[in-house]
Amino acid sequence: MNAMSTPLGTRTAVVVGSGPNGLTAAVRLARSGVRVRVVELAERIGGGTRTSELTEPGLLHDDCAAFHPTGVVSPAFLDLRLKEFGLRWQWPEVQLAHPLDDGTAGVLYRDIDRTAADLGVDGDAWKRLMGPVVRRFPGVVEGVLGPVLRVPRHPVAMGVFGLRAALPATVLARTFKTQQAKALFGGIAAHSFDRLDRPLTSAVGVMLGAAGHVGGWPVAHGGSRAITDALAEALRSYGGTIETGVRVKRLRDIPADVRVMTLSTRAAIDVIGDALPDGVRRAYRRFRYGPGAHKVEFAIRGDVPWTNDECRRAGTLHIGGRLDEVAAAEAQINRGVLPERPFVLVGQQYLADPSRSAGGLNPLWSYAHVPSGPGDEQAATERLIAQIERFAPGFRDRIVSMHVRGTTAMEAYNPNYIGGDIGVGANTARQVIVRPRLTPHPYATGVPGVYLCSSAASPAAGVHGMGGYFAAAEALRYLVNAT
What positions belong to coiled-coil segments (predicted)? Predict the structure, then answer.
């Protein structure tokens, strides 16, 4: 495409941040003919999707995001045709497993019928919960992964989803009789980092559970960096450029017709400065950040010796025991208390993507939900390992080396992760609906031509690029009206 041949060919845009949202915005703008420049503070692109050798040479570890149930079904990624730019998804045999102390587990397969059969007496209840959402998933995903305060294009689909999503996860889990089904659903809902007895915590459980039956919980071949590598390749194909190691302190540092920023609300206040309207400034200041993630990467010899066989084939595992235990741990971190038994996520990406392993060793990804801000990293690491050992006796003996990144280091890795909050904002009921402020245009900052599209804006966290996709659409409308 010759950018100068389009009505927008003389228009310019600067995108601050090279994570999935920033690059998605950049690609959509560049594809429309806008001359796009992406600037990134770090020396490497990717934001939450970087992949590094953190333990042993050749072992590939995802620095943050690891499995991608929303990425594989993202309307943005599908529209931008990332497969043509090198992105390749890979699936484990078992999408997700949640082990229990008796050696059983709640297990999620891509096949909803197989999942239901494995859940036994709760199989029909699982299908009643997830089936209607799965059948209407295109309408659901379009509605959920976008601004909430708008008229839905698929009201029936959103109505079906909303009836389930509105309830606290602990209430909706009463649908089930067995500990396996309760734990499976509760563990998925715990991705909200919120107390599971609060309204709308079922939204995450239903959305990610249904996504698992539609697109699975895949990994990106070669590491999560492959997602932003594909976006970067797409951007370059449309004439866009990327610069790393660039710090943006004020809007004047990035002159352009439109500016799109993947910043936290706190950083946005500083960068936009006095130009930010008072009402928007107050809303950004009121925006709350959530608990943190304590991340530990392991190099292990062989596989994790899970007691449950299905766990040995699972790409993702939720470690926390029964639903009541998970709910108690999530309540503690929201009170600022490090649980004795924190909720832990474990990724065995190498099962689907053997290219991540090397030298007879496998990389194991994990993080524990912990309180926000500085904490006892040694205790958090030990409790994380103890949780894995609880369901995989002998795990400690498989560890060759570790790399620990606590909440403070998570924020240093990505300044958007305030206090270690990798979701860039608490998922309270209010902030699920109103993110980052009460407006049908959540990406608008109130400054003409300036937009915010980090995970602090709708539709919140997840590697799906939808915040950037919608922010770019608003920026394009602004440019067309200004032409």
Answer: none
